[in-house]
Amino acid sequence: MPNDKLAILDRLFNPAGVAVIGVTGDPDRVGYCLLESLVYAGFKGRIYPVHPRLDSLLGLPVYRSLDELPGPVDLAVIGVNQYATVDMVEQCGQKGIPGVVCIAGGYREMGAAGEALEERLIAAARRYNMALVGPNTLGIINTAAGLNTSFYPMRLPVGRVSLISQSGGVGLTILQKASDEGLGINKWVGVGNRSTLELSDYLEYLARDRETGVIGIFLEGTDDARRLVKTAAAAARQKPVVIYKAGRSEAVNFAAVSHTGSMAGSYRIYRQIFAQHGLLVAESVAELVAACKALAIAPLPAGNRLGVITHTAGPSIVMLDEVVRREVEISSFQPATIETIKAALGENPAVVIKNPLDAAGHGMLAASFGRLADAVAGDPGVDLVAAVYCLHLHWRFPSRELLAVRRRTGKPLLALYVGTQAGVREERDYLQAGGIPVYLTAEEAAWGAAALAHYGIRRRGEN
Amino acid sequence: MPNDKLAILDRLFNPAGVAVIGVTGDPDRVGYCLLESLVYAGFKGRIYPVHPRLDSLLGLPVYRSLDELPGPVDLAVIGVNQYATVDMVEQCGQKGIPGVVCIAGGYREMGAAGEALEERLIAAARRYNMALVGPNTLGIINTAAGLNTSFYPMRLPVGRVSLISQSGGVGLTILQKASDEGLGINKWVGVGNRSTLELSDYLEYLARDRETGVIGIFLEGTDDARRLVKTAAAAARQKPVVIYKAGRSEAVNFAAVSHTGSMAGSYRIYRQIFAQHGLLVAESVAELVAACKALAIAPLPAGNRLGVITHTAGPSIVMLDEVVRREVEISSFQPATIETIKAALGENPAVVIKNPLDAAGHGMLAASFGRLADAVAGDPGVDLVAAVYCLHLHWRFPSRELLAVRRRTGKPLLALYVGTQAGVREERDYLQAGGIPVYLTAEEAAWGAAALAHYGIRRRGEN
């Protein structure tokens, strides 16, 4: 992508002023919600609602036309129908607005007539060298700027994970799941029909974006696969890239084709190519979020050998099931570690000392759990640690202890806290702020650990 | 299992009086929490804490010994260490207490010495013809009775799903996930070392239990596989049985062996045998819960043909990815259905009418979403319906409409409501009370739909 395209994308994500075209006073309508989303997210720039007859909306003055806008506009969000959108893009171009988000569908995905309409849309954008997001999209989000061009008003935690989604609905699912998990989002884009901006363009932008630490992608299919893989591979040399690819069967490929007009190739081939190029492949929304979470919160391990400390064996077995099919090794503890653990357990422990270490009753109280976690993390053959603890109504969680281990050893830790009772959210936020991602299921903790191990291997392979 | 064993299990799950042996005044100790769990869950029978020196605890009088208990005791929960537990089982037997839950570990899972100790425990139980749950277990839960013998105090929603878990920690994860999802639990058992009661014994009991509508199992491995499969197959003729089996790799099998002393066979073989016998196989805790949820809440479909209605294509594509690998068909709509949908969409709809039906903007408002859902559900080629809707900050959810469709057509519906904002929990509880399970991810909705289709096929195959 030429540098000016990157610069334009940067203006789109950080606009000084946003025009919202197609606002209405009816809260049931998309146009109203587009404006509301900006207000609700606390957009830090200027907002200019445009409507030929309204005077004010949501406390903001409404402008009759683009001619009346009093300040610079970097981005226009267009919420009118597919036909009127073409005219509005033309008008925006005439006014020198560098970027537009086109919400309406009804183009290429509708067959020949829609395709002709989309060609007119593209021609208008090209005429003025504009960046056009969509059409048929929810648009873009930049949490730090309070920018949300979708008609779904929301407030998201601010963080380091940026997302590219080929589906608005799946993209929303990912945002929701991340939000539920206390995982901060940086930028988000629903690519829609990709008329002028391809998946790769956004990817290239996010790869260079300093605020983005991890990139997650939901992919249906693309006729630009070669460039996508090349761009993603280059991005993965800067920061982790996690891809969740839908359309794993012929029946589903058909559905994907008719949705955004994209071609879906064989899932198996996609998967192999992704892996060869150092990309992480997720098999579900939950895995995508779990992997992004670990990579955004924890440091990278120096190797791929996992140590597990728990007081309940089952979840650690489920974890092993998942990690051994990925690139994680379960190492044996060294003799000195075994001695340290023995000393921590005391007389007559009724514990088999092995990895995973199931300390049973010895692991239930925070202080002793912490001593054992410290021993496991201190083993020279352990590169990252998963700590599995079942939350109890009134026993204190071993969060302080785990953070101390994290600081002392410098190794990445993940916590699997079984339970969602009162207090868990606070505990989770406390741990995550200290660099320890927290999971609620063994599978998700395993995916997080595997993502760290995988990307750690990749980065070391380059040095 | 002989009938008297079933009768004893029934007394265990519905005890008139419970003795708690090994209570202490220290909230950090297991013995305190065992008592607290009964109080916290609102146990409806009598509770008798036993301790040689304490007078009262948690507002209850404490009895000095089993001799002093003033009323009948059906169940003793034993929270002392593994050695003292053997003596206490003997004492309980002498007093004629028919059942014990033995919490402590330190038996067979610890090697030869532990095995000898466990033999003494078994001998004591056999001598008095007692039912012994565990040892090395969290014990049992019966929500309707307010019974929770674990040292994890909790309050669970009451419902029709009963669970057998070979791991306390995974069993707790399942309870937590179910609770988060508003899925009611009936009974729960952590089988522990299975000294005198096998997985199959509990399964046989739950198969006959009228309050149990669906059975979920977390399995690590068993040396009693033949009987387990036979029992599960028989149970599945009465009610759905969903199994999640861990230990899918050699490395993990090793961990499972050293945990509860059980042998883990090849996962692939287990899986095939389960499927041949009409059992549903889940691949994760999330899938187990999603399947149990659909089966507990929705009616069975008359066939396996799924209709999907959505306003955002992506999640429906992810759903298809999952269901087409299971036993679900995606049918084409019949001409009359297409006409009804056309009429509902009005002029110039910019919608391709197919299954899944992505109604885009037409599907965003509850009323029109409802009309389209009604058309899809009314198609004679559709046996069950998935309705995919992204929750919006202030647009009304189409819950009322979906419940009306459900009543009118008599067909099972599942809702995928993307979002967890305020109001979602209430909306979910409202829908689930009306027979429509609600999911938050496309994968989970797909697993729910597949479980309904699968068990529907199975039940029809018998008639």
UniProtKB/TrEMBL annotation, chains A, B:
ATP-binding keyword on record: yes
Molecular function GO terms recorded: ATP binding; ligase activity
Coiled coil region boundaries: none
Domain CoA-binding: 12-107
Keywords: ATP-binding, Ligase, Nucleotide-binding
Keyword Manganese: no
Database matches in PANTHER family: 3-HYDROXYPROPIONATE--COA LIGASE [ADP-FORMING], ACETATE--COA LIGASE [ADP-FORMING]
Name of the featured protein: CoA-binding domain-containing protein
Native source species: Desulfotomaculum copahuensis
Taxon lineage: Bacteria, Bacillati, Bacillota, Clostridia, Eubacteriales
